[in-house]
Design a protein that fits this description.
It is built from 60 helices and 2 strands. By secondary structure, the protein is mostly helical. InterPro entries: ARM-like, ARM-type_fold, CAND1/CAND2, TATA-bd_TIP120.
Length: 1235
């Protein structure tokens, strides 16, 4: 290294500029090597020469020297770094030539910008700051002051936390500059103060803010002084965030006073006032909430401030509208001296911030903001109009949130109704904009219409006649910037035609179809893809219900749509998105209008078949085939049927899961429509490929495969032999799987029913599919050693389905056989369990009361045998009771009363009763008689205070009984909520939890009135009752948030209180050699945090985040079981309530650091090691979410924590967590069905 560096040093001093250039380039390459190292003398020489090169007459050499300087600072010793910085500062502050000062400023800025963190950065910035302060104070030189302020901005922005000792001096230096007469100095001083604000201590920040407020209160001789201090206040609020909130009580009235003074006519000051209000609401929404009644009127007043044009939209009479439009564009209104548009633009932005920050005040804000915004839709200034539209879009988004909140309050309902009534006025106002010349304004108008059609689709589509001319004008625009305008217009057309009320467009399709079809051939791929989507939506509007007749005038449009779609479908050299959209549009065209294209349809189907052979388009092609096959039109698919089936069958062997799923769905659709015409070879190939997919390896794919095979059996009974030979053994094996549930189980039951039914059809010839063969196979599978409890339950359901399909005689013989198996003295436990479960499943739909020995057999099984046999007997008794309530329900009730002294036996009988009530509640038609309902209610209320196991079953029974008899059960439960017994109160709350179904129910209105009383139990003296109440609140928030949304203001403080550690619930158990601490409140705290997690998803606008974050801080220090949900919740809050999290970020760092520093003991078992690893991963995910909060780096403790994490022992794990998150975010769109 010594010889090359020596040569470089020699050439750097050459008089030949080419030598100097090459030497500087070589030096840059050498410095970029991490192994660069040289002696002290050479370092000093290099530093001197690089400083000389900065002033080289050749611009290329000086540019390379700047790059070398940034690298050299990181390679040479500390002493030489100090010399470099001192030399550059000396040239900046004392240089006599302007070029010398400029070069020094560029060099210092490069050093600061490229400087990494750590000790070197600390050394440089601490050396630099005092000199920059001195430079700012050199009032005689504007260039030096400006350069010093620019450099100071760079330093404090990147390394503000490293110069804490200089913060006071910097503030004292910057504040006087706000009164400087030169605008450039004032602007730079504001930037420096805002960059420094996040790093200031509370005392220094308070001092700066108080200084600004005092200066604003003082009389100003120059208008720019007030503007500067108002700008500074806004910048400090944006930079300091929540820490500025404490000053809003003083700042807001002062700003409103300045902003609401129209006599001053200082438009720029009013603009800065509105920007300050915007910053207050954006960065400190919690503290600004109280001032909203004062802020909103001023903002609306400023939004209407237009001294040069009085425009009252309410005065419109509908005539002369176009003349008014022309008047608005006359040059007489273009006043270059009029800057009132800045006030209106700032007001629109502030209003958008208010709307987004206070979603819970939507009804009040909408009533006041909507008329004001509508009045400004005729704004003359383009930028203002776009911001007005953006504010209205924010209003519509909040309307969408309110609309999704089912069962909202009266105020929200009134706001929704008012929005519906305002749609015609909105559409009329936007239609005027769509006829203007401004492309940006028209694009913003379409963005607003898209938001409007998402919230109020039917009323928006009803106004389509008003919007048509604007849409056609946009689609026919030929200007250079028309692509984006067309894209917005097509997106609106597509969304409108796909929404409710799209039939309103049918009279206008003749005018709309040609430009949409023409747009499909646009070169810009996004426009072409969107046009194809619009064509597909148009096909559905032309014929929404096939095969309904199509009016003659709409039939003329079909060839145009076909020509546009077919041209894109045939083209190979185009973007993937366009290809997929063309395939989807062709499928929609064929499925809805194929009978109107008799000559073109074969070519269209042939093209779709060809797309199946291309790896890039095969998934889209498979979905297209499924859509065409599902069409209700009688389309001729004969030419492509066999080749398409062959391709689909081949896809079943591919590794791609989405492709297999789509292929199975397409096969089922094809078989359902054309199964009778399939050849034997195609059937065999399909069955052979589908059989291996029937397994518990992928239950979703298994369900699709079973559905396809069932459909094949229905359409081609002759396929029974192939299905029985290949698929049936797989189905039997699947029935034994402990994972079988949900849709896969339903598909399996339907498959067995279809196999038995189709095996008896003429020509089926499938001996292995007879009832006796199937029953024997299922009984053998159910008694096999590998069959567990869940597998036996599933197999019992399969047996019941077979019996139901076989008929009464076969059912009776099967029941008798099962009873014999149950009573056989040498029968195994597995055989008895399966017999009991099968009898119970059969008894659900058949009356088995005629079997006299059945009741005795069930009673014997309940009292004798293993616990698993008793549990099976309990389920069987409940199932049999469903078949004949009058015969078995009284027996169950009497047995429950008789077994009061035997909790175990009583528990089994209660489970049987629960089986009856839950099954009835799930059935839409079945009911208990009035006598039975009263008897059951009395019994359940009497047992509310029983042991915990029985009490939980009683609670579930009460909840489902209330769903059956809403008016008779809920009042007694309300009375029971005040019982003296804690067990009874806990049972009542748990019962309410069972009533909270995801789907609407008749009990919902009654629950809305009753739930406030139940929520008071969140603060019950008994911890079991509190836990049950918290879990009930979680269930309500998850399933029906509107039931509890209005109660949260009073409930949340009590819920937050449950997250705190209660020392009275911690007890110590003496275990001899050591003592063990047991925390009885642990589960309650965990449930409380999980409840808040659900509330964040369900009611984000109703939570008090600042109050909760204090409790979350304690949760992050709690037990492992509490930390895990807290980490998940913190990561979610980092997105939902980032401003509030940023406000508490400094206090969240210590518990996160402590968690990451946790180490397991040397003798820890594997389970403890795994738990600790899981906790570290969850903590790192939370840290990653926090690190992605905007301005998170402004919190110095958190930034130091991140820097230490990145360089510490957990760096690899942290990188893995970030990579996992990035992969998940990147994979999300790919996993969606975009076609």
């Amino acid at each position: 290294m010594a010889q090359p560096i020596a040569i470089i040093v020699e050439k750097l001093q050459s008089k030949d500029k080419d030598y100097r250039y090459m030497a500087t380039s070589d030096l840059q390459g050498a410095l970029e090597q991490s192994s660069f190292k040289t002696d002290d003398q050479t370092e000093r020489t290099l530093a001197r020469l690089i400083l000389q090169q900065l002033e080289d007459p050749s611009g290329d050499i000086s540019s390379l020297a700047v790059k070398c300087l940034a690298l050299l600072v990181q390679r040479v010793s500390t002493a030489h770094v100090e010399d470099l910085v001192d030399s550059l500062c000396s040239k900046l502050l004392s240089g006599k030539r302007e070029q010398e000062r400029d070069v020094a400023a560029i060099g210092l800025k490069t050093v600061v910008t490229d400087l990494p963190g750590g000790a070197l950065a600390t050394l440089v910035v601490r050396r630099l700051c005092p000199k920059l302060v001195a430079g700012v104070q050199q009032k005689e030189s504007y260039d030096i002051v400006s350069a010093s302020l620019d450099l100071m901005n760079e330093v404090v922005s990147k390394f503000g936390g490293l110069v804490a000792a200089e913060h006071a001096r910097i503030c004292d230096c910057l504040l006087p500059e706000l009164d400087e007469s030169r605008a450039g100095v004032r602007k730079r001083a504001i930037h420096c103060l805002s960059a420094l604000a996040p790093h200031l201590t509370d005392a220094l920040l308070d001092g700066v803010v108080k200084h600004l407020l005092q200066r604003l209160q003082a009389p100003h001789s120059r208008p720019e002084a007030a503007r500067t201090h108002m700008q500074s206040l806004a910048a400090m609020s944006r930079a300091a965030g929540w820490r500025f909130g404490k000053h809003l009580g003083h700042a807001v009235p002062l700003v409103l006073e300045q902003c609401g003074e129209p006599s001053a006519r200082d438009e720029e000051l009013r603009e800065h006032c509105l920007q300050a209000l915007d910053a207050f609401v954006l960065r400190s929404p919690h503290d600004a909430r109280g001032a909203l009644p004062q802020i909103l009127p001023i903002v609306l007043q400023c939004l209407a401030h237009d001294p040069n044009c009085e425009d009252d939209m309410d005065a419109e009479d509908g005539s002369g509208g176009e003349e008014d439009d022309e008047e608005l564009t006359d040059e007489e209104y273009s006043d270059d001296e009029d800057v009132s548009w800045k006030v209106r633009r700032a007001a629109a932005k502030c209003l958008a911030t208010i709307v987004s920050a206070f979603p819970d005040r939507f009804s009040d804000i909408y009533a006041r903001a909507c008329p004001a915004l509508l009045a400004r839709f005729r704004e003359r200034e383009e930028s203002v109009k776009i911001d007005v539209f953006q504010a209205f879009i924010a209003l519509l988004r909040q309307a969408s949130v309110a609309a999704r909140r089912e069962g909202g309050g009266a105020a929200e309902a009134a706001a929704k109704q008012r929005l519906r009534a305002d749609v015609p006025s909105i559409a009329k106002a936007v239609a005027r904009t769509l006829r203007e010349k401004s492309v940006k304004a028209r694009a913003a108008g379409f963005a607003l219409l898209k938001a409007l059609v998402a919230v109020q689709p039917a009323p928006t589509n009803a106004a389509c006649a008003l919007l048509l001319l604007g849409v056609l004008a946009a689609l026919s625009d030929r200007s250079s910037s028309s692509a984006q305008l067309k894209l917005h217009a097509l997106q609106f057309v597509r969304e409108a035609l796909s929404a409710d009320g799209a039939a309103a467009w049918r009279p206008h399709l003749a005018a709309l179809a040609p430009p949409v079809a023409a747009a499909a051939s646009e070169r810009y791929y996004k426009v072409g893809a969107e046009a194809l989507r619009a064509c597909a939506a148009m096909c559905r509007v032309i014929r929404p219900d096939a095969p309904a007749p199509v009016p003659a005038d709409l039939q003329k449009l079909v060839p145009q749509l076909h020509a546009a779609v077919a041209a894109r479908l045939r083209c190979q050299d185009q973007d993937q998105e366009v290809k997929e959209c063309a395939i989807a549009a062709a499928a929609t065209l064929a499925a809805h209008l194929g009978d109107l294209l008799p000559r073109e349809l074969p070519d269209l189907l042939q093209a779709l078949q060809e797309r199946l052979r291309n790896e890039m388009t095969r998934l889209a092609g498979v979905k297209a085939v499924a859509q065409v096959a599902s069409s209700r039109l009688d389309l001729d698919l004969g030419a492509v049927l066999e080749p398409v089936l062959a391709e689909l069958t081949a896809f079943l062997r591919k590794a791609s899961r989405p492709l297999r799923q789509a292929a199975l769905a397409a096969i089922e659709a094809v078989v359902a429509a054309r199964g009778a015409r399939m050849s034997a070879g195609a059937v065999d190939s399909m069955v052979e490929a589908a059989a291996p997919l029937v397994s518990d390896g992928d239950l979703a794919v298994s369900a699709l495969a079973l559905h396809a095979c069932s459909r094949l059996l229905e359409r081609q009974p002759a396929s029974a032999r192939a299905v029985t030979a290949r698929v049936l053994p797989q189905a039997i094996a699947l029935a034994q799987s402990p994972l079988l549930q949900g849709q896969a189980l339903e598909a399996l039951l339907a498959f067995f029913s279809t196999v038995l039914r189709c095996a008896a059809a003429p020509g089926a010839a499938a001996p292995g599919a007879s009832f006796d063969a199937l029953l024997a196979a299922l009984l053998a599978a159910g008694t096999a050693p590998a069959a567990g409890r869940s597998a036996q339950h599933n197999i019992a359901q399969c047996i019941a389905v077979l019996c139901s399909e076989a008929g009464p005689a076969t059912l009776a013989a099967t029941v008798e056989g099962l009873l014999s198996q149950l009573q056989a003295p040498r029968a195994s436990e597995a055989a008895k369990r399966l017999a009991l479960l099968a009898i119970g499943e059969i008894g659900r739909s058949a009356d088995l009361s005629r079997y006299g020995v059945l009741r005795g057999a069930l009673t014997s099984a309940l009292k004798g045998g293993s616990e698993e046999v008793k549990a099976a007997a309990s389920v069987a008794l409940g199932g049999v009771a469903l078949g004949n309530m009058s015969a078995y329900l009284p027996f169950i009730l009497s047995q429950i009363s008789e077994q009061a002294r035997s909790p175990k036996d009583q528990y089994l009988l209660l489970k049987a009763l629960n089986e009856v009530i839950v099954s009835l509640a799930r059935s839409a038609s079945a009911q208990l008689s009035a006598q039975h309902q009263q008897e059951v209610l009395r019994l359940l209320l009497a047992h509310c205070g029983s042991e915990e196991e029985c009490r939980n079953v009683v609670a579930e029974c009460l909840g489902h009984l209330a769903l059956l008899h809403t008016g008779q059960v809920l009042p007694p439960l309300q009375a029971q909520a005040g019982a003296t017994s804690p067990s009874a109160r806990a049972a009542v709350v748990t019962a309410v939890k069972s009533m909270l179904l995801p789907q609407p129910h008749a009990i919902d209105p009654l629950l809305r009135d009753a739930i406030p009383g139940f929520l008071t139990l969140v603060s019950d003296p008994d911890r079991h009752v509190r836990k049950a109440a918290v879990q009930m609140l979680s269930s309500a928030a998850h399933n029906k948030p509107w039931l509890v949304a209005d109660q949260l203001e009073g409930v949340l403080p009590r819920l937050y209180a449950q997250t705190a550690v209660d020392e009275s619930l911690i007890r110590t158990v003496d275990l001899g050699p050591f003592k063990h601490r047991i925390d009885d409140g642990l589960e309650l705290r965990k449930a409380a945090f999980e409840c808040v997690d659900i509330l964040v998803d369900a009611c984000p606008d109703r939570l008090s985040y600042p109050a909760f974050l204090t409790h979350l801080e304690s949760g992050l220090k709690d037990h492992y079981d509490v930390k895990m949900p807290c980490h998940i919740l913190l990561a979610k809050l980092a997105t939902v309530a980032s401003e509030h999290v940023l406000a508490h970020l400094e206090r969240l760092v210590p518990p996160l650091e402590a968690t990451l520093a946790t180490k397991v003991k040397s003798d820890a078992v594997k389970q403890e090691v795994d738990r600790n690893d899981d906790m570290l991963r969850s903590c790192l995910r939370a840290v990653d979410a926090l690190n992605r909060i905007p301005n998170a780096s402004s919190c110095a403790p958190f930034q130091r924590f991140i820097d230490g994490l990145v360089a510490g022992p957990l760096a690899v794990r942290y990188a893995a967590v970030k990579a996992e998150r990035a992969e998940a975010e990147g994979a999300a769109p790919d996993g969606m069905d975009a076609v």
